[in-house]
Amino acid sequence: MFSVEYYVKQDGSCPVEEFILSLDDKMQAKIFRSLELLEEFENQLREPHSKQLIDGIYELRVKQSSNITRVLYFFYINKKIILTNGFIKKTQNTPERQIDIAKKRRFEYLKREGRK
What we know:
By secondary structure, the chain is α+β, with helices and mostly antiparallel strands.
């Protein structure tokens, strides 16, 4: 079984966890349920729960009434899923800026792990 981990910045902060905890209780519950599905079904989890975006970056797709939230992530060796960032979706497509944040955090994570 895969394990979900939060990306931690060099300064020790964890922006994706902070984002999730800033959401209302119902949305948090739906996100945590979706993360359980992700751990269980791993890279086999598909739409409507998960979707591959680009270059090994995936999005966890969560909807609570009319609110849509996305959490971006990537897979890492030893059965790890690293959550990089989250956002409230307001447009049809995932903003490039959010994908760029995920890629940058993945690069930094891999660099720290010695696997550029």
